[in-house]
Amino acid sequence: MKLLAAINGAETEVNIHLETESVHAEIDSRVYDVRLQPADGNRLLLISAGQVLDCRIEGELRSGAAIEVVMGTNRYPMVITDPKRWRSASPAGAHTSGAASIVAPMPGKIVRILAQAGDQVEVGAGIVVVEAMKMQNELKSPKAGQVAAIKVEVGTTVNGGDVLAVIE
Amino acid sequence: MFRKILIANRGEIAVRIIRACRDLNISPVAVYSEPDAAALHVRMADEAFLIGPAASAESYLNIQRIIAAAKMANAEAIHPGYGFLAENAEFARAVTNAGLTFIGPSPEAMEVMGSKTNARRAAVAAGAPVVPGTNEGLKNLAEAEVLAAKFGYPVMLKAAAGGGGKGMRQVATESELRAALEAAQSEAAAAFGDSEIYLEKVVARPRHIEIQVFADQHGNCVHLGERECSIQRRHQKVIEECPSPINDADLRQRMGAAAIKIAKAVDYTGAGTVEFLFSDVTREFFFLEMNTRLQVEHPVTELVTGFDLVREQINVAAGRELSFRQADVSWNGHAIECRVYAEDPENSFFPSPGQISFLRVPTGAGIRDDGGVTQGDEVSIFYDPMISKLAAWGRTRAEAIDRLRRALDEYAVGGIKTTLPFFREIVRDEEFIAGQLDTGFIPRFYERRADRRPPSDNPAAVRQRDLAIIAAAVAYAQAQGALATNHQPPANSKWKLAGRAATLKRSATEPSEPFNG
């Protein structure tokens, strides 16, 4: 997942690759592999090269909003922008023509498949269930149509952005 | 002893008094204003009475409502805490006239000490040293000019009814006198309804040192040593210590004796504090004023002497003798207290009201936190924004600072800005560590601070900032994931749910999870 972080007006690109209990991140060619404890709400615990970082996020976590990351006694005010949020500004209608992909929002494991290739589905019909950060997310069909392909099986580990199914 | 005490206050001091009541098996009764309906002091009390809307004038300063609440609860005594009605002689009289006990000194003692000029006269009569200055309010500018020339500039103009730095002006030369006098008069009139101003000589490199006194109704009057309150911002104390870093037993004895003389001069009873200015240059001390209440900073005295001042206040008000004599008072170790305010130190200490979204209060060896809030509470715009007093005790001042530094770093408050970052810097400041305190400390601290701003482009700083960005990115990604589950279409039909459940039963290899409908 690619995001932009602005601190004091200076923008930095961060590329993160989230696994269940770790994150691989790249910022300006600096590479970090960080252990990650599942968070509750706005708190998370990172361990990077043995260094413990007890983090708290203050503010509303959405693209373009000002937040503050509190790490120990340090505070980092910043704005996180999600380039994908710009493109999806216009809501995908229920009767969109063409194929639509169901994409994993974050890394996880497929725990259930609710539709088979060839099934006719309604808008909002559950297609697959992904478990990530100990939460189960049911991913739904963005449109009415036929399931063209299910690209995963129960037990498959997926990364954020992977295409899981295609609806036509 | 009383069975039930009403506490005419809110916040941390109400909580502090409730705790002393519990220790003595006394039932505590709270009063509250509308926005405080779910406040910590209400939750901790046995009974609570609404006394009015947010504005203090209609609630915590409403004498009639408070006494009516005490009557309704069948309380036998009222503890006023500090602030609000604590030094209001009219309130003390109203409490007594209602057949209740006021936990504090007599209204007469309050009246004498409530006026700074009267207090000065009382101190002079008791033979205590006072700052060279006037015992009467200034009549006019001409008189001010003559007196200022006699004492020598710089001089300080002060409101007779004053407190909290209002109506106070330092004047360096005669040309500034007229404007300063007019400003002080109008400020005093606005703040206290009394424009009387008096004049004092300015003491060189003054330390603010106060003596805690305690007297009962049986003629016993003792002192519990000093507190150093020199670290002040806009004439408001921010850090207090016991003992003073000067830690001079002979000086303590002399100041204590002077304080007792002053207290006895007004037949004082209960807890009181005699404030002195101490010149670091000449090592003279001068009477400043007497506070006829429990002080905010009383915990540092408690930590070092081992006495519970609120418990003692209640004992004395109930007519008992003081539980100790002067010979029983000794000073063990060192205590330092920080007042944690909901204020933004990076934005000229602007109040930062709002909801406390996260709260982790430090504990551990030598740490005491007197708080008035819990996580989820709202710090309202209506009252003093102090959320807690964090105090550390150690065998030595250095050990107390070590513990205070650790506790300040551990202290975490979310949702609002606090003065914690400011204190974290102060406990690392060389002048503070060296105990070089006087009332000019804060301005000098800010000058030093400007010089030692850490560079933000070293590899360690860059790494920390990167990790903060990673934390934000991870949290953002997680929030997006959670969003997907929350944005399900509402109210599926029962048929659909049944169908789905059947599908799940067929395909489930793990226990099935209920779906959000």
Q: How would you describe this protein?
A:
The complex is a heterodimer of chains A (168) and B (517). Chain A is mainly β. Chain A has 2 domains: 84 residues, no CATH class; 72 residues, RNA polymerase II/Efflux pump adaptor protein, barrel-sandwich hybrid domain (OB fold (Dihydrolipoamide Acetyltransferase, E2P)), CATH 2.40.50. Chain A has 1 helix and 16 strands. In chain A, strands 1-2-3-4-5-6-7-8 form an 8-stranded antiparallel β-barrel. Chain A has a 4-stranded antiparallel β-sheet with strand order 9-16-14-11, with no helix packed on it. Chain A is elongated and about 55 Å long. About 6% of the residues of chain A have low confidence. In chain B, β15 and β16 form a beta hairpin. Chain B has 17 helices and 22 strands. Chain B has 4 domains: 100 residues, Rossmann fold (3-Layer(aba) Sandwich); 70 residues, Dna Ligase, domain 1 (2-Layer Sandwich); 246 residues, 2-Layer Sandwich (D-amino Acid Aminotransferase, Chain A, domain 1), CATH 3.30.470.20; 26 residues. With 517 residues, chain B is α+β, with helices and mostly antiparallel strands. In chain B, the strands form 6 sheets. Chain B has an 8-stranded antiparallel β-sheet. Chain B is 38% helix and 23% strand. Chains A and B meet through β1, β2, β3, β4 and β5 of A and α13, α16 and α17 of B.
